[in-house]
């Protein structure tokens, strides 16, 4: 089905979920689908070199992304207490699951497991994130957190923990014990799924 036919369906009461990603970009920017498919939000400079795509188009895309981020942040505020890994995943998934690079973040909690903050600690490459325990724990200390939950995304969409994920989790758990700010879990976010390292017995 072509984009024009889908537009007619949407006008007849169908939702926006009938569109592919490239079709949504086409609708938002006015570009044809072939050009829209080439836009890479992780590399705006390269995208602006595509014929038909300029600075104004990329500004529109950035504005849409920022609006979506703020919208989801408002929704995320409904999750104010972490009862388990599902809550942590629901809180962080819209921030991270579609990022093109690894973002390593920390959810900061008070003594009653209320969320008091969310901090991005590092942004890595497509395959790895460079994290130092000092940087993570500094965010916890500054926020007067009672405990923390580690969270990061796998751009591949597969949340299976790597050896590096297991190693940094172990380091941060040990650091947390030293300063009495325990690491409750490490959530790895993929595409519409996650893995809890606590549930896998990798957080102690």
Question: What do you see in this structure?
Answer:
- With 204 residues, the chain is of the alpha+beta class.
- The chain folds into 2 domains: 3-72, no CATH class; 81-196, Cytidine Deaminase, domain 2.
- Helices cover 43% and strands 16% of the residues.
- The protein has 8 helices and 5 strands; from the N terminus they run ααααααββαβαββ.
- It has a 5-stranded mixed beta sheet, with helices on both faces.
- Helix 8 links the parallel strand 3 and strand 4.
- Helix 5 (55-76) packs antiparallel against helix 6 (85-96) and helix 7 crosses helix 8.
- The model has no long low-confidence stretch (mean pLDDT 85).
List descriptors.
single chain, 204 residues, alpha+beta, Cytidine Deaminase, domain 2, 2 domains, 16% strand, elongated
């Amino acid at each position: 089905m072509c984009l024009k036919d889908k537009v007619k369906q949407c006008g007849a009461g169908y939702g926006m979920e009938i569109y592919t990603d490239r079709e949504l970009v086409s609708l938002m920017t006015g570009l044809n689908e072939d050009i829209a498919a080439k836009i890479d939000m992780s590399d705006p400079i390269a995208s602006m070199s595509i014929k038909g795509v300029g600075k104004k188009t990329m500004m529109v895309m950035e504005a849409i992304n920022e609006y979506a981020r703020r919208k989801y942040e408002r929704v995320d505020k409904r999750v104010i207490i972490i009862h388990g890994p599902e809550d942590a995943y629901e809180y962080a998934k819209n921030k991270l699951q579609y990022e093109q690079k690894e973002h390593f973040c920390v959810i900061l909690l008070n003594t009653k497991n209320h969320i008091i903050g969310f901090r991005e600690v590092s942004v890595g490459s497509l395959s790895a994130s460079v994290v130092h325990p000092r940087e993570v724990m500094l965010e916890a200390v500054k926020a007067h957190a009672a405990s923390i939950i580690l969270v990061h995304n796998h751009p591949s969409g597969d949340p299976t923990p790597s050896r590096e994920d297991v190693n940094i989790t172990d380091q941060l758990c040990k650091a947390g014990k030293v300063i009495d700010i325990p690491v409750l879990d490490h959530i790895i976010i993929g595409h519409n799924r996650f893995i809890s390292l606590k549930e896998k017995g990798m957080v102690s």
